[in-house]
Design a protein that fits this description.
The protein is of the alpha+beta class and 201 residues long. The protein is built from five helices and four strands; from the N terminus they run αββββαααα.
């Protein structure tokens, strides 16, 4: 009897151990934070997002799943941006106010550049008037005259470049805030902006 019981217990333990042994197929999956995990058992929430690894450590592709998943790093970055957006703003009006505050300094700098251009343009015009006066009197121009004219023209060119850069920066900022507001509305309503617009029509 004791021998039979020992035999049954040994068989039971062997069967339990055999059933828990891994199949030799190692699974690989990536969680919401972009961290890669390996194991012989796949958590249910990651079903369909896994890939298998051979015993030699080589990746194995599933013939039935030919669609490549989106890189987890990109998803993680978008999720981080969405969380930040919702943490900073509580309404789209706040996004508009933040945009206007950021544009105030750029606008002040732009106005300063335009004032500088007006000043240098006036100086250049004065130099041209002086040149006309010397020409009418038949007198030679001072040695430094051409140098002053060239300097004024170069300064106006640099100011024009700075004005163009500042305007481009302001336009880029407007576009960025507009994109943030569009995304904020999508997160708030749960409806993509394109769909909400078509529905309204």
């Amino acid at each position: 009897m004791a021998y039979l019981l020992l035999t049954l217990n040994t068989s039971t333990i062997w069967a339990a151990t055999e059933s828990k042994q891994p199949s030799g197929k190692i699974m690989k999956w990536v969680d919401e934070q972009g961290i890669t995990h390996y194991g012989d058992t796949l958590p249910p929430q990651y079903s369909g997002k896994e890939s298998s690894i051979s015993p030699r450590g080589l990746p194995q592709t599933d013939a039935g799943n030919s669609t490549a998943s989106e890189p987890p790093g990109k998803e993680s970055e978008q999720a981080r941006r969405d969380r930040t957006l919702q943490a900073i703003y509580s309404s789209e009006h706040e996004i508009d106010r933040a945009r206007d505050r950021n544009l105030e300094m750029d606008q002040a700098m732009l106005e300063g550049l335009e004032q500088r251009k007006l000043s240098v343009t006036a100086r250049l015009q004065a130099l041209k008037n002086t040149e006309t006066g010397y020409s009418k009197r038949g007198q030679p121009l001072p040695k430094e005259f051409k140098k002053d004219v060239k300097s004024a023209l170069l300064e106006i060119g640099k100011i024009d470049e700075q004005i163009a850069e500042r305007k481009h920066h302001m336009e880029t900022m407007r576009s960025r805030f507009e994109a943030d507001k569009k995304r904020f509305i999508e997160l708030k309503t749960g409806v993509p902006a394109g769909e909400s617009t078509s529905t309204a029509h």
